[in-house]
Design brief:
It is built from 8 helices and 7 strands; from the N terminus they run βαβαβαβαβαβαααβ. By secondary structure, the chain is α/β, with parallel strands linked by helices. It has a 7-stranded parallel β-sheet with strand order 3-2-1-4-5-6-7, with helices on both faces. α1 runs parallel beside α2 and α4 (105-133) packs parallel to α5.
C-alpha cells in the first residue's frame, strides 16, 4: 500500500532507539524526510546512520539534532534547524518506577515536563503550519498504563493521562476540518531498553529471579511475546498516512491483547 506521504517531513522525538526509532525507520522507508531528536549524541548519530541506509532506496532525507526536547532551549535548537513539519511524533522516556509515598513535587514536575508539557509545546509549535498546508498528523506515544494504570508507574500514567485529556479536546477542534489529526499510541510490553530496565527493577523489588519474572510476564500476554519496534513503527506510519485521515482523537492500544477490558 502506498501511504501517500513520500516527500513530507516528520519530527520524531526520542528516536535514537526503541519505539521512537521504530517510528522514524518506518517513516523513512515510506519516503518521509525525518528530523530525529534525542539527548544522546552518540546513539542518535548511530540511529541516523542506520536510517540513511533505508533512505538510499526510499529517497528520504535524514537529519538529526542532539537536544533535550523537554527544555525550552532544546526545542528552540530543533526548530532553528527546521521549522515546518507535516508530522509530529512526540515521545519521551517515562519517569522512574516507585511508590507514590516517595514522590515529591519535583518528581511530579519532571514527569509533567517530559510527558505532558513537552508534547503540548511541540503540538503548539507545529500544528498551525500543518493546518495552513491542509495536512497534519500528530502521534503521541504514551503508555498502556493510561488505559490500565499500574501502581508503580503512577508518575507516568498521571502525566500521560493529562496529555490524553488535552488531545481528546484538541483533536476535535477546528483543526480536524483542516486535515490535521491527533492520535495517541499506547504501547504495552515492547522489547526495548526501557522494558528491560523495568524488569530488572521489578525483579529486585519483589526478590524474584529476573529470568523467572520476564518469563512470567511474557506468558501473561495473550500473544505470548513482547512486541517489536518495527511493528510499532508500522502502525505509526499508517496513522501518518493519507488513508488514516478519518482516524482522529483515538487512543490506540498496542499490547498483544494484554488489556482484558471491552472498552
Amino acid at each position: 500500500m502506498d501511504l501517500g506521504i513520500k516527500g513530507k517531513w516528520a519530527l520524531v522525538c526520542g528516536a535514537s532507539k526503541g519505539l521512537g526509532f521504530g517510528c522514524a525507520q518506518a517513516l523513512v522507508q515510506e519516503g518521509v524526510n525525518v528530523l530525529i531528536v534525542a539527548r544522546g549524541s552518540v546513539a542518535l548519530e548511530q540511529a541516523a546512520a542506520t536510517l540513511a541506509v533505508d533512505a538510499q532506496s526510499s529517497g528520504a532525507s535524514v537529519q538529526y539534532c542532539a537536544q533535550d526536547i523537554t527544555t525550552e532551549a532544546g526545542r528552540a535548537a530543533v526548530f532553528s534547524q527546521r521549522r515546518d513539519f507535516d508530522m509530529l511524533v512526540t515521545n519521551a522516556g517515562g519517569p522512574p518506577l516507585g511508590d507514590f509515598h516517595d514522590w515529591g513535587r519535583e518528581d511530579w514536575i519532571k514527569a509533567l515536563d517530559a510527558n505532558m508539557l513537552t508534547p503540548f509545546e511541540l503540538i503548539k509549535a507545529t500544528v498551525d503550519g500543518m493546518a495552513e498546508r491542509g495536512y497534519g498528523r500528530i502521534i503521541n506515544i504514551t503508555s498502556s498504563s493510561v488505559k490500565a494504570p499500574i501502581d508503580s508507574l503512577g508518575l507516568s500514567s498521571g502525566a500521560r493521562s493529562g496529555l490524553t485529556g488535552f488531545v481528546a479536546g484538541a483533536a476535535r477542534s477546528s483543526l480536524a476540518a483542516r486535515g490535521v489529526t491527533m492520535n495517541n499510541l499506547l504501547p504495552g510490553s515492547f522489547d526495548t531498553d526501557r522494558l528491560k530496565a523495568n524488569h530488572q527493577a521489578a525483579a529486585q523489588r519483589v526478590g524474584e529471579p529476573l529470568a523467572s519474572l520476564v518469563e512470567r510476564r511474557r506468558k501473561s500476554i495473550p500473544a505470548q511475546r513482547f512486541g517489536n519496534v518495527a511493528e510499532f513503527g508500522a502502525i505509526c506510519a499508517f496513522l501518518c498516512s493519507q488513508q488514516a485521515g478519518y482516524i482522529n482523537g483515538q487512543n490506540i492500544l498496542v499490547d498483544g491483547g494484554a488489556y482484558p477490558g471491552i472498552y
